[in-house]
Design the sequence.
């Protein structure tokens, strides 16, 4: 009797495993999935939103093909992201999978109206990774996504993974993820931000860059002309969930300096020996830099003390950058330039944007007895009353291989 019960038990276990694995195979079979790598959200003329999906044709389970041999973009007008996905599931007769989604793009128009509902919806989807980058595009999101052409990469998903890394050595953009945006929405000492994206001037027909300094460019108005359609330069600044302004390249460098998110960058400073000329300087932030925030007479007083190492990057035939007096003059010029652009950035975010996108409020939390006291102070609204004191100390080295002989 025990032998019969044992055999019946084994058969039941085998049947359970067969059913479980059969269901799992059916649900996870790559042939049944369409992997979304980019998601775009625009204002719609007929519905609530227009959602653009960019995805790659999944490899066949019977063919050893390149996963990204075919890139497809399709759009649908719908009343919600969930409905858009559901409609596209039917359209393709495949289940859209967002677990590989690298970027989420919002147009300027929809960002200005507020995007918190979309952020909460996407973060509530277990497939969406918090590490997916979030972009506000100067053009509509559909056009931005369709213009993406990773000219130096064979894989478009790899391009999406790599392009934010340039922030570390240029400072011209920042690595802004949907996870960080969500956290900033519920933060009481900071505001959200995104990457600023756009289509290159040569593709969009724009020609507004003739009199713009190199460091003042941003996406959609840069002097770039090339085969790759899109560019990501600058930042989009939010007040809670609404777009309130945009930062150009040098302002984004300032943001990254204060966030300590840049390893090095190049700036052009006035040549102290020639008022009509500039000198390119390669700058490296030093770890002893600090930020101190105090509440004085009810208003924030923010002291910025930053230290940099730097090397002269550009030289001419008559350059004499090994002379101690010349290096000292260049250091002073670099100090004044960085103090100026950092101060302008800080007052722009506080008075024009009214948004502590840098998150300076965290430096004063410890001065309040309790978290409730800090919340009652309402930092995000009091940031507009801030006074800034910026001091820069730069140690300039000639940094060139060419020396006097």
Sequence:
């Amino acid at each position: 009797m025990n032998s019969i019960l044992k055999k019946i038990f084994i058969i039941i276990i085998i049947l359970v495993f067969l059913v479980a694995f059969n269901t799992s195979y059916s649900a996870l079979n790559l042939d049944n999935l369409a992997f979304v790598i980019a998601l775009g959200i625009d204002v719609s003329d007929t519905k609530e939103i227009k959602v653009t999906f960019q995805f790659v044709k999944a490899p066949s389970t019977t063919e050893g093909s390149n996963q990204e041999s075919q890139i497809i973009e399709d759009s649908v007008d719908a009343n919600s992201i969930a409905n858009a996905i559901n409609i596209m599931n039917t359209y393709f007769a495949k289940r859209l999978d967002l677990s590989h989604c690298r970027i989420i793009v919002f147009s300027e128009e929809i960002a200005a109206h507020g995007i918190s509902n979309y952020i909460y919806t996407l973060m509530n989807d277990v497939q969406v990774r918090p590490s997916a980058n979030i972009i506000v595009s100067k053009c509509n999101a559909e056009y931005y996504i369709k213009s993406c052409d990773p000219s130096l990469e064979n894989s478009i998903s790899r391009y999406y993974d790599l392009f934010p890394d340039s922030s570390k050595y240029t400072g011209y953009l920042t690595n802004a993820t949907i996870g960080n945006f969500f956290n900033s929405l519920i933060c009481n000492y900071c505001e959200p931000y995104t990457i600023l994206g756009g289509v290159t001037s040569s593709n969009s027909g724009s020609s507004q860059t003739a009199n713009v300094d190199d460091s003042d460019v941003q996406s959609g108005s840069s002097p770039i002309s090339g085969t790759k359609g899109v560019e990501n330069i600058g930042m989009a600044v939010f007040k809670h969930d609404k777009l309130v302004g945009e930062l150009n390249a040098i302002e984004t460098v300032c943001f990254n300096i204060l966030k300590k998110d840049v390893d090095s960058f190049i700036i052009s400073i006035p040549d102290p020996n020639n008022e009509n000329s500039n000198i390119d300087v390669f700058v490296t932030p030093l770890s002893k830099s600090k930020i101190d925030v105090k509440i004085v007479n009810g208003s924030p007083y923010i002291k910025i003390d930053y230290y940099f190492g730097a090397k002269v990057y550009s030289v001419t035939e008559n350059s004499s950058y090994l002379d101690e007096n010349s290096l000292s003059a260049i250091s002073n010029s670099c100090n004044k330039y960085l103090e100026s652009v950092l101060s302008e950035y800080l007052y722009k975010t506080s008075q024009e944007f009214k948004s502590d996108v840098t998150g300076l409020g965290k430096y004063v939390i410890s001065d309040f007895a309790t978290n409730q006291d800090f919340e009652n102070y309402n930092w995000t609204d009091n940031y507009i009353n801030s006074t800034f004191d910026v001091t820069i100390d730069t140690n300039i080295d000639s940094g060139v291989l060419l020396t006097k002989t």
Observations:
- Confidence is low (pLDDT under 50) at residues 401-405.
